[in-house]
Automatic annotation (TrEMBL):
Belongs to the PDGF/VEGF growth factor family. Pfam families: CUB (PF00431), PDGF (PF00341). This is Platelet-derived growth factor C. GO terms for cellular component: cell surface; cytosol; extracellular space; plasma membrane. It is found in: Secreted. PANTHER family: PLATELET-DERIVED GROWTH FACTOR, PLATELET-DERIVED GROWTH FACTOR C. Residues 1-19 form the signal peptide.
């Protein structure tokens, strides 16, 4: 009886959560869209600048306890000397609201490289502690966002240290085993392989055959959403599309997207690194004559699941955990030209 009541309570909380988010989606969008943003981080006038001359740390409010709701904080760390780098190391106590479909939508911490606006990563949940991050120059920006619902604990704490570039040069990748390479270097190495067999042989030269057998060993469980929904995408040759679809019209087209960037999962390597998705693109020549800005936007979006090989560092153990997993990607099925500007000549 107690178990049944607990299940009912869990279901009710989940329904309440989705209903609350749906009810406030419009007001939430208006609120966040009113804040000027650049590359996912608030306008510099809202950030707190911290001059870095020695080691230190920043953390979410009330760390290691539950952080407040409806909060946006931005820090920009600036080293006193120009010829140094800033290294960020996350505390082992890390926990934010869980992602939805492996995407951090609600509460997250994000790191940006100010020199070129690159988002180095966005993290949430509590299953994995984010990896170390190193700036390209003497500055780095950190952004923390929590929405109106379901704060978690303990939040996050990031320790920062200064590095002199010539002291941090890593050994040549060719001299290091794959398990010892930084994730970014390993990601570049993985990109050069054309088959799973070649990749596994590179990662595990002594036991690659066993790993390959384990990877494809059938299980009693259904293997992910790909088989449940039957919507695994296939590669489509643009040359096979209907001839009447003109080259520059507003229509769904095949684009190659990086999974790490699309899913904001810098703690994981996927193979293949990129997949084809349909995204709206093209010119709009049929808009209203008084429209000053016509934009090609999606009018029908479908989420499809793609089966890929996932490589993640093992916590406290050398080597990589290898598994087949499904990742969700948005595909634009239908597009239309919509007037986004004013209607005055």
């Amino acid at each position: 009886m107690h178990l049944f009541a607990l299940l009912l309570l869990t279901s009710a909380l989940a329904s309440q959560r989705h209903a609350a988010r749906a009810e406030s989606s419009l007001s939430g969008k208006l609120q966040f869209s009113s804040a000027k943003e650049q590359n996912g981080v608030q306008d510099p006038q809202h950030e707190k600048i911290i001059t870095v001359s020695t080691n230190g740390s920043i953390h979410s409010p009330k760390f290691p306890h539950t952080y407040p709701r409806n909060t946006v904080l931005v820090w920009r760390l600036v080293a006193v000397e120009e010829n140094v780098w800033i290294q960020l190391t996350f505390d082992e106590r890390f926990g934010l609201e869980d992602p939805e479909d492996d995407i951090c939508k609600y509460d997250f911490v994000e790191i940006e490289e100010p020199s070129d606006g690159t988002i180095l990563g966005r993290w949430c949940g509590a299953s994995t502690v984010p990896s170390k991050q190193i700036s390209k120059g003497n500055q780095i920006r950190i952004r923390f966002v929590s929405d109106k619902y379901f704060p978690s604990e303990p939040g996050f704490c990031i320790h920062y240290t200064l590095l002199v570039p010539h002291h941090t040069e890593a050994a040549s990748p060719s001299t290091l085993p794959p398990s010892a390479l930084p994730l970014d270097l390993l990601n570049n190495a993985v990109a050069g392989f054309s088959t799973v067999e070649e990749l596994i042989r590179y990662l595990e030269p002594d036991r690659w055959q066993l790993d390959l057998e384990d990877l494809y060993r059938p299980t009693w469980q259904v293997r992910g959403k790909t088989y449940i929904h039957g919507r695994k995408s296939r590669v489509v040759d643009l040359n096979l599309l209907k001839e009447e679809v003109r080259l520059y019209s507003c229509t769904p087209r095949n684009f190659s997207v990086s999974l790490r960037e699309e899913l904001k999962r810098t703690d994981t390597i996927f193979w293949p690194l990129c997949l084809l998705v349909k995204r709206c693109s093209g010119n709009c020549a049929c808009c209203h004559h008084a429209c000053s800005e016509c934009q090609c936007i999606p009018t029908k979006v479908t989420k499809k699941y793609h089966e890929v090989l996932q490589l993640k560092p093992r916590s406290g153990v050398k080597g990589l955990h290898k598994s087949l997993t499904d990742v969700p990607l948005e595909h634009h099925e239908e597009c239309d030209c919509v007037c986004k500007g004013n209607t005055e000549g």
